Amino acid sequence: MVETVIINKIADFNDKSLLIVDDDNPFRERLARAMEKKGFEVTQAEGVKKGIESVKVKKPAFAVVDLRLNDGNGLEVVKELQTSNSKSRIVMLTGYGNIPTAVAAIKEGAIDYLAKPADADDVEKALLADPEAKAPPPENPMSADRVKWEHIHRVFELCNRNVSETARRLKMHRRTLQRILSKRSPK
Q1: pLDDT given at position 3
Q2: Quick one: average pLDDT of 78-87?
Q3: Structural Rg of the chain based on CA atoms
Q4: Burial track 14-46 (b if 16+ CB lie within 10 A, e otherwise)
Q5: Architecture of domain 10-128
Q6: Contact (Cβ atoms closer than 8 angstroms) between residue 12 and residue 38
Q7: How far apart are CA 161 and CA 121, in angstroms?
């Protein structure tokens, strides 16, 4: 049995304020324009510091926060959002989708977690979905090869791009890792 998720409409909400925190300026601008067209009242911030300042000025009902920002971790903004407005609906965005960061985001108060590049329709669905209902499966999930590639690159980045350390932590041969790192991402 497939559970249907009830998607609310932005018109159903009195407070339509949306904070978008992302250091990728072109992406943030495009998302902001698209969300304004959908009826949200958008405020933008390009980092943790400006995001927290925006939250203190206006406690938004909705937020889209990138996990990795130039000046820190987006979870700091999520914590501030939860402190100032516990009813905020927060969606985390990241180019580095993995289980531990998704769990951390949900524990801090995010209602959903989307991998970049997420389009405005995906963001809107995540923000307006009933937080108690189970989310529908993704339309275009990443392939198993892509998930493996993402995980390897994430560990590589966390090891400060040190091939030997990454190979040791992933328990694989260094040359095998180098071959994987030299290839393009699978679809």
Answers
A1: 45
A2: 85
A3: 18
A4: eebbbbbbbbbeebbeebbebbeebebbbbbbb
A5: 3-Layer(aba) Sandwich (3.40)
A6: no
A7: 34
Contacts of residue 165, defined as CB under 8 A and 6 or more positions apart, other chains included, come to 159
Hey, what CATH topology would domain 144-182 get? Arc Repressor Mutant, subunit A (1.10.10)
Q: What is the mean pLDDT of residues 112-131?
A: 79
Q: Which amino acid is at 166?
A: T
SS3 helix, strand, coil % of the chain, rounded to 5?
45, 20, 35
Answer whether 0.85 is exceeded by the pTM: no
Contact 152, 180 (CB under 8 A): yes
pLDDT in tens, 12-32: 778 888 999 988 888 889 999
